[in-house]
Amino acid sequence: MSIIRRITHFDGTRAARRPRDRVENVRAAAQDFRREMLAGKPVPYYRSMELVRVPYPARYGYLNGFGRLAPYIHLCNRLFVVQFRSAEGLKTLLVSPSDWEHQRATPFFKRLTDSMGPFAGVGEALVFKKTSTVLQRLAEIGLAPEDVDYITYDHLHTQNLTRWLGGNGHKAIFPNAKLLVMREEWESAHALIPWQNQWYCPGGLDGIPQDRVILLDHDVMLGEGVALIRTKGHTEGNHSIVVHTPEGLKVTSENGVSLDAYAPQHSSIPGLAEYARATGAEVVLNGNTLEYGVDQYISMVQEKAIAGPWPRDERLPNIAPSSESAGYWLFPRTAPTFTVGDLHFGRLQTPVRHQAAA
Ligand SMILES: [Zn+2]
């Protein structure tokens, strides 16, 4: 386990009785953590690629902050491929590899499609934009499935991991990959209450061998340049993926759906700046299940403080949402003011194991 090292910066920062004290304790710890992480080296490879765009209720995406707009926003799900150095050589991590072709049983999406009735085919083609699959993306960049060492998701909403890791009778497509997941998220996803289960894919974790799962109880550093930081709120076991890139620390989760959500005071999306001004809110939550609202607010402040300023516009934080809201003609006036889009730093390297076998 030498690749995975515990981080203690945030231990105890949420113990204060007063929420505002918690916010400031977390913010201070995040600034320390940021300095320390930036003192190390960036990862050699980081790339994010669009997979699919799906409709998502605007009232959840910008909880409480959304004024008089279309009922849906369009969320762009991305796959992130990261390579990092470690004591055991170069490792390859996939962040948020959504097997979206096999997640349609997720009750929310199933109901949405069913509600289109006889127009489901046309309706689906209109509102679900299928750009690419995980396997197509890996083939495009020249990464073999056996070269994936780890996969992780900031949370498990809608995910079906059975093809990737070999559950439900599937042979594992990623024969060497292990899932990195917070213990709360893993346990929670196995016994959900109706408040939560509309967003999880039924059977999505069934039969996954235990030795393919690394349950995390703490914030951790993976080798050099990657950290998984617990940022609960959107779900019970939500975490953020922090990667040291040539463009600073990129922080990824789904606590917010766009940079606008992390800097609402600068947003031109109707309602957001007004909401931020009227309430003093520093962030706008992505709250479909609202598992821990106060914690989610604190977590988003934490993410911003770790990320620091975005080099392209320093008024905004250096966040790369795992699902980023994108403009769409069917959902007018929902386009975010600031878009991160696909990112690409460095060159993919063929892992040593693969070279030795060739
Ligand atoms: Zn979610």
TrEMBL record:
Keyword Metal-binding: yes
Record GO terms (molecular function): hydrolase activity; metal ion binding
Annotated Gene3D superfamilies: Ribonuclease Z/Hydroxyacylglutathione hydrolase-like
Keywords recorded for this protein, A-Z: Hydrolase, Metal-binding, Zinc
Cofactor: Zn(2+)
Source domain of life: Bacteria
Family statement: Belongs to the metallo-beta-lactamase superfamily.
Matching PANTHER family: METALLO-HYDROLASE RV2300C-RELATED, QUORUM-QUENCHING LACTONASE YTNP-RELATED-RELATED
Protein's name according to its UniProt entry: Metallo-beta-lactamase superfamily protein
Species of provenance: Fontimonas thermophila
